[in-house]
Design brief:
The complex is a heterodimer of chains A (378) and B (449). Chain A is an alpha+beta fold. Helix content of chain A is 54%, strand content 20%. Chain A is rod-shaped and about 110 Å long. Chain B has 449 residues and is of the alpha+beta class. In chain B, the strands form four sheets. Chain B has a six-stranded mixed β-barrel. In chain B, strands 2-3 form a two-stranded antiparallel ribbon. Chain B has a two-stranded antiparallel ribbon with strand order 4-14. In chain B, helix 2 runs antiparallel to helix 11 and helix 2 packs across helix 13. The chains are: A alpha+beta (378), B alpha+beta (449).
């Protein structure tokens, strides 16, 4: 590259600030739409994956077949370990047993209410969630049948199988009635410790429900949890997992197609702007040829120019696209969309390639013509 | 003269015209595709959500308290209550019958099997029945009823269509072929495989069936046994009875009216609001209609399934709207850019026109008319391209293989597309045409802009 060519390229870019700005703006607009589409597709998919997780836990941990009916509560810490905790939105342990309440046998569940509230947003509580150890959440049907309401008290007894004749008894205060439309409406929930001591199952849990952080990559999450806690069998709740996959793949298909169409349409617009820029400079090109520059040299100069416009437009477009994606993310989800690194590459590549292709196609046409004819304006 | 030169100009400038046409067409195609889809989008997504399974549970009014632990489930004998299996076809006669996608009745008892206890669930697995004519008790005007379409015909439903996520190794049992499905965990515990024979003992009766399939669900159903409802009724001595019906219905996200109806009860709504509520497929109004169809039943929303759906669909609609707006923005920018280029390329022609005595108004009119012609042509092409694109989107992004739009909505889409396309072309050419009008003939002829 001679100093002369460099000067020609940068001189041309510098002296024609106005037209260059128009070309850069066109490339930037086209690229920004593509970058926004790429970011949105990824970011929106992630967001939707999280939104879908409102359908509750998609993983269930139970004891391995033949390992006895309980898991050790102490081992729950394994789910909080580094590398596992990031994969889970939350997990909640349960211990289940049958207890007598007002003379009726009912299923009593012990759980961690704070964790439950986090992973099970569909539990509709009339009254409030229990706070202390003496408070209980009563299923709707139990409440109707036993005539319990928020503020009432009841006592639960359990006849321990191991110690014949010895029964445990505890009093609870009803803080809320729970409505789910599922089997929970037939159950009574108290805090884990109280249930364990009442049922004689200190330090044991029946199962753990876990909710993965996103709906995607579920197989990997299952493998990681399995490795972290070999004593438990990790089951994927297919009802939730499969349906989420189906819904997400539909959304993704739609967004990909729209992104493709946007790419095509922006391509057309950048193409025509760049073509106009090149066309505008036919006299200049002809002059260079008349002064002795070879077709190759002229083409090189214009290629370098188009490439710089492409890079510049790509950069500006990348920034604009990210901002645009954030705007959409904020309005729809009320949260920022994590910019994807590949969209940077996509942005620059789209900017450079479109501006090169469109500029070169015109340059070829012009350099093919005799300089004298172009200069005469024919 | 104007018409002739316009026609000639359109014909002779095929290359740059092609680019203009391409950009107008693609923008118009985008518009028409999204307009055609807009009528279906949320509906289609709602359909996808039915992959989550039943969203309504129908139980006897007195709803017995059950003790469910692990895969087992007990109900005391004195409290047991049932629905009649014979009443179930009425579920497909309610106002929103076309929104009832699938349902399955259940009857279950704990039985002795292979030396341990397991829950045997009798259900419709894959049952076809003929839908009865409704007795005309719907509290609606004839017009609204005609719009919903006639009842009747045959309907195939059951657990198989209700729970699409079940992974069955082997096959589903037929209606009277003596087959059963075993949950994967139970099968492992009892070391059962497809082809094994199994004896189910309940009180004094027993039933010998063979395992035709092993089902994996990841939930409590993995510990259960599934048989055809009729066999379960015979085994339990409860012929014609069912305990619960799970129903999968297409619903519209709740709005303020639905929430108010849920709070105060539908009966307390003013008559015209009641009709609106009744004639909109909210979860609440469908449950209300199901309860009307089977008076001794009580419907419950399965909140785990229904809760997130409305919010999700609303977000989805919002996102699609914004994405479509982006696409249209890209489309109109494209049209403008190509119009600018097309007019720029023709500055010599403009100079000639002016040199021959055309005034500014005539030049402007000529180019605007030409732009309108491009817009019209691109709009018409784009309309058809858009229909094809919408078909493609519908087939790829959603499971519908076909969609039909009424003649009226087709017309609306065509008109909107044409108007928008012409508008984009005119808007895009406005600036360059204004510049062209100011052009000095001599400079233009020399090719100096």
């Amino acid at each position: 590259v001679t100093t002369m060519t460099r000067r020609l390229v940068f001189g041309a870019l510098f002296h024609r600030k106005g037209t260059v700005a128009v070309a850069v703006a066109a490339v930037a607009l086209g690229t920004s739409l593509v970058v926004a589409a790429v970011n949105l597709r990824r970011g929106v998919m992630g967001r939707f994956g999280e939104e879908l997780r409102a359908h509750g836990p998609n993983l269930m941990l139970v004891p391995r077949t033949g390992a006895g009916p309980f898991l050790d509560e102490k081992e729950l810490d394994r789910l909080g370990a580094h590398g596992v905790a990031e994969r889970l939105k939350g997990h909640v342990p349960f211990v289940f047993g049958v207890a007598k309440i007002q003379g009726r046998d009912l299923v009593l569940g012990g759980t961690n209410f704070r964790a439950l509230e986090k992973v099970s947003p569909w539990w509709q509580v009339e009254g409030r969630w229990p706070h202390g150890s003496g408070e209980a959440l009563v299923g709707l049907n139990v409440a109707v049948k036993l005539g319990l309401g928020p503020g009432d008290s009841f006592s639960a007894t359990h006849l321990s199988a191991g110690q014949a004749g010895k029964s445990q008894r505890r009093d609870f205060f009803v803080s809320g009635i729970v409505r789910t439309g599922g089997p929970e409406e037939h159950q009574v929930f108290v805090d884990l410790k109280s249930a364990q001591s009442l049922l004689g199952l200190t330090g044991l849990v029946t199962m753990v429900l876990a909710s993965s952080a996103t709906a995607t990559d579920l197989e990997q999450t299952v493998a990681i949890v399995r490795e972290a806690w070999p004593g438990a069998e990790v089951k994927t709740q297919l009802q939730v997992a499969e349906a989420e996959k189906a819904v997400l793949s539909r959304v993704e298909g739609f967004l990909s197609l729209v992104a493709a169409v946007v790419l095509f349409v922006s391509g057309v617009s950048v193409f025509s702007t760049m073509a106009k820029e090149a066309l505008e400079r036919r006299v200049e090109m002809a002059l260079m040829r008349a002064l002795g520059a070879s077709v190759r040299e002229v083409a090189w100069i214009f290629t370098a120019e188009a490439a710089s416009i492409g890079v510049l437009g790509g950069l500006v477009g990348f920034v604009m696209g990210i901002l645009f994606a954030q705007l959409l993310g904020l309005t729809v989800f009320g949260a920022f969309i994590h910019p994807s690194p590949e969209s940077f590459v996509v942005g620059i590549a789209v900017g450079v390639s479109i501006s090169l292709v469109s500029s070169l196609s015109v340059v070829r046409r012009i350099t093919a013509a005799a300089p004298a004819l172009v200069l005469k304006g024919e | 003269m104007l018409v002739r030169s316009l026609a000639k100009s359109l014909w002779e400038r095929k290359a740059s015209g092609a680019l203009v046409l391409l950009s107008v067409t693609s923008a118009a195609a985008l518009l028409s595709a999204f307009l055609s889809l807009a009528f279906h989008l949320t509906e289609e997504m709602a359909k996808e959500f039915r992959a989550f399974g039943a969203n309504i549970l129908l139980v006897p009014k007195s709803e017995p308290l059950e003790i469910g632990i692990g895969g087992l489930r007990y109900v005391t004998a004195e409290e047991s209550a049932y629905l009649e299996e014979a009443d179930l076809p009425a579920l497909k006669t309610v106002f929103w019958r076309h929104n009832i996608i699938a349902f399955a009745p259940f009857l279950s008892r704990v039985v002795e099997v292979g030396g341990r206890r397991a829950l045997v669930v009798g259900a419709w697995l894959d049952r076809e029945f003929s839908v009865p004519e409704p007795d005309g008790a719907l509290p609606l005007s004839g017009e609204t009823r005609a719009a919903v379409g006639p009842a009747g015909g045959r309907f195939r439903t059951g657990l198989k269509s209700l729970s699409p996520w079940w992974r069955v190794e082997g096959r589903w049992p037929g209606e009277r072929d003596g087959g059963l499905l075993v949950g994967a965990s139970l099968a492992r515990e009892l070391t059962l495989a497809v082809g094994s024979a199994l004896t189910l003992a309940y009180e004094s009766r027993s039933l010998r069936l063979s395992v035709v399939g092993i089902v994996q669900t990841g939930g409590v159903d993995d510990e259960r046994i599934f048989v055809d409802l009729e066999q379960a009724q015979a085994l339990f001595g409860l012929s014609g009875k069912v305990e619960a019906v799970e129903i999968s219905a297409l619903v519209t996200p709740d709005n303020a009216l639905a929430l108010r109806a849920a709070r105060v009860g539908p009966a307390a709504l003013p008559p015209e609001e009641y009709e609106t509520w009744y004639c909109t497929p909210y979860l609440g109004s469908i449950i209300h209609q199901l309860e009307e169809a089977i008076p001794d039943a009580k419907g419950k929303a399965i909140r785990r399934v229904s809760q997130g759906e409305g919010a999700f669909l609303a977000k989805l609609k919002h996102t699609f709207g914004l994405v479509v707006a982006v696409a249209l923005l890209a489309g109109s920018l494209g049209v403008m850019a190509t119009m600018v280029t097309a007019i720029f390329e023709r500055r010599r022609e403009i100079g000639l026109m002016k040199a021959l005595g055309a005034d500014r108004r005539q030049v402007g009119l000529f180019f605007l008319l030409e732009a309108a012609a491009w817009g019209l042509a691109g709009g018409a092409l784009g309309y058809f391209g858009g229909l094809a694109l919408a078909r493609e989107l519908a087939a790829r992004a959603f499971s519908t293989s076909s969609f039909d739009l009424s003649f009226a909505s087709q017309g609306i889409i065509l008109a909107t597309t044409l108007i928008m396309a012409v508008g984009m072309a005119l808007l895009g050419s406005f600036l360059p045409v204004r510049q062209a009008m100011r052009l000095e003939p001599m400079r233009a002829l020399r090719g100096i802009w």
